[in-house]
Amino acid sequence: MDFEEILNALEDLVENSWTLPMSGGRTVVDSAQILDFVKEMRLNLPEEIKQSKRIIKERDDIVSRARIEANGIISAAQAQAKRMVSQEGIYKEAQIKANDIVANAQSAAKELRAATMEYCDNVLKKTEETLRRGFESITETRKNIRKADK
Q1: Confidence (pLDDT) at 16
Q2: What's the number of domains the chain is made of?
Q3: Of 25, 43, 82, 136, which sits with the fewest C-beta atoms within 10 Å of its C-beta?
Q4: pTM
């Protein structure tokens, strides 16, 4: 069953369940059936949701790698600066180069982070739009079913 069919079957189960007398409309449903539907829904999650989870993981991995790379560059710059400090004549030049390297690394990490966030936001926006259209379709289908039932 696809996701919409599962939702329809779950809705049918609830709508056709036995109503408890004097309970304010509460019904008795087969919990095993509901759990089966929930398991089925998990197995049939829309691809957009699965894709958004993968994208978020990829984004986190990219940001993590960028941080590691930036820290490595900063460490290398600091180590190089310390070596250069030992040489009296080029101390100032070393300090300037180290600061440039650190600034470049931080700038590169910032740009990579911004690009990653923009990419993820675009993909999640598309996913959101797809899911919204899907939910609108489900709502419209439910309305049509109810109209046909009357």
Answers
A1: 85
A2: 2
A3: 25
A4: 0.37
